[in-house]
């Protein structure tokens, strides 16, 4: 039997982006640098990021603060809809609003997103082969953070909806052999000063 070790998956949403999402704002760049400083002493094996500029720039800025950690682009860390529920799966009082939000995505986007979500779970979750624990960072977008946190909690597939992640906030999931997945940290912004917190988060939900 192949030995298994614990995986620590660090999830971060990209830093604050410009209105056209072509690059990070000055605040976004600072958020990424501060997140890199926070992760400097974590024994990361790799930083993975999606293909869009805001995620790629965030990952590079984080990588600049780390020592000899490879930064890799992977499509599965991109921005996509991981799952589209049927009306019968949703709470009655929220179903119409949630389905109206999802209508903006085409049938092709929905199909491709579901396939990428399956690949992301296969690539980034669960214990790892070997005797050594592995720490990995994925710099991604709000939808994928919500999807992987939902999966770790074994919540219904539709429940990625309603999970919001701030720019450059950090979540950490632990996958230990023989144990259920554990969300150790969610949407933590302790590395950011007050003026850089809560960006990218719905105003009505800010604490």
Automatic annotation (TrEMBL):
<protein>
    <submittedName>
        <fullName>Histidine phosphatase family protein</fullName>
    </submittedName>
</protein>
<dbReference type="InterPro" id="IPR051021">
    <property type="entry name" value="Mito_Ser/Thr_phosphatase"/>
</dbReference>
<keyword id="KW-0378">Hydrolase</keyword>
<dbReference type="Pfam" id="PF00300">
    <property type="entry name" value="His_Phos_1"/>
</dbReference>
<dbReference type="InterPro" id="IPR029033">
    <property type="entry name" value="His_PPase_superfam"/>
</dbReference>
<dbReference type="InterPro" id="IPR013078">
    <property type="entry name" value="His_Pase_superF_clade-1"/>
</dbReference>
């Amino acid at each position: 039997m192949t030995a298994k070790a614990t995986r620590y998956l660090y999830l971060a949403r990209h830093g604050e982006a410009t209105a056209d999402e072509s690059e990070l704002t000055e605040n976004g760049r600072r958020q990424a640098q501060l997140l890199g400083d926070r992760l400097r002493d974590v024994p990361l094996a790799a930083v993975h990021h999606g293909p869009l500029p805001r995620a790629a720039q965030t990952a590079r800025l984080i990588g600049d603060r780390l020592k000899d950690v490879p930064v890799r682009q992977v499509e599965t860390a991109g921005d996509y809809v991981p799952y589209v529920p049927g009306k019968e799966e949703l709470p009655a009082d929220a179903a119409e609003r949630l389905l109206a939000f999802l209508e903006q995505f085409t049938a092709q986007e929905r199909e491709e997103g579901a396939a990428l979500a399956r690949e992301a779970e296969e690539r980034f979750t669960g214990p790892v082969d070997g005797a050594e624990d592995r720490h990995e960072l994925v710099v991604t977008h709000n939808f994928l953070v919500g999807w992987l946190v939902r999966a770790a909690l074994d919540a219904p597939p539709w429940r990625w909806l309603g999970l919001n992640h701030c720019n450059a906030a950090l979540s950490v999931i632990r996958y230990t052999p023989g144990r259920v997945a554990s969300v150790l940290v969610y949407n933590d912004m302790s590395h950011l000063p007050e003026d850089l917190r809560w960006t990218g988060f719905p105003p009505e939900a800010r604490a």
